Structures are given as structure tokens and as C-alpha cells.
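Can anyone check this?
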Amino acid sequence: MNIVERRIDEIIVLKPKVFEDARGYFYEQYREDVLLSLGINHNFVQDNVSKSMKNTIRGLHYQVGDFAQGKLCHVLVGKVLDVAVDIRYGSPTFGKHYPIELSDENHLYYWIPPGFAHGFAVLSDVALFHYKCTAYYDKNSERAILYNDPDLAIDWKIENPVVSDKDLLATKFSKIAKEFVYTA
């Protein structure tokens, strides 16, 4: 696995070494020693997979306190627009968002550390989205930012989004609590 790009110091785009031939392809999905060598020094404790249909938007989600999650995101089937939003008060990039297309063709991984909200939009007919988390899911620590908040102005690359009732009731970006504070 190699670093393809750093969006900012904290957000990293990775690509595994993919071996392809007429039968298909093979790659190592996860190797702790390689991630450590690339500076991703986190203990992953939970894996999640979601299946979503075209035009679905999930997010923008994050957790706080002891359950703040870093996420290593990857698409197994299909294509998504994956988005990270800096929610660390005092950060020089506070409120900025970082989109990237992840797909079963480009095999990219997106490392999003704690202190960032996360969401994705499904661009293909169906998508299987996989992500490793550095903390367990905890309902009481869960937060969400409204996906279409005009202050963020995220272009999700879809029309007529399908969004859960819970995500439609999410907090506006300007109203989120100061639960993450940037330290240089």
C-alpha cells in the first residue's frame, strides 16, 4: 500500500498494490505493519459494511469523546463520492470538505481521522462500502451534520438524493458543539 495523496496532513488517500490478470485481481485489504509505516498509528476495533442503492447519501456522521472514530474507508463494489469535513474548532481547515471518488475499479482507501465528519453518496447502481473504525459505535456519542447544509456547499454529484429520516434531522454545521479542538 502506498500514499497516493495527502489532502491535508491528517487525511490520506492510499492505494494497495493490485495484482490483476485474466481471472480478476488480488490485493491485501489490510496490513497493520504497512499502515504503521505510513504513519497511520491507530488500533482498529470494528469493521462496518453498508450496502446502498444509487443516489443514497449517508452522513455526515461522527462520534465524540472516548468513542471518536477514525475511519479507513474502501469500496468493495460500485462507486461512491466519499467526503470528510474538518470539524476541529481552531483548525486552519475548519469547515472545509474533502471529497474523493472511491470505487471497485480504483481500489483507493481514504483515511479519515477523529475530528472529521464523514459521509458518502452512491454514484453507481449499488455500492458495498467497507470501513474500519478506531472506536466502537456508541449511540450516545453519535452526532450528524446536515448533508446539504449551505455553509458546507458540498456537491454530492447526484440529483434527488435518498436520505434517512435521521440524517434529514441532523444539525446545521454552524450549530455543532465544540467537541473537537485543533491542536497544532
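Reply from J.R.: I decoded it. The radius of gyration is 16 Å.
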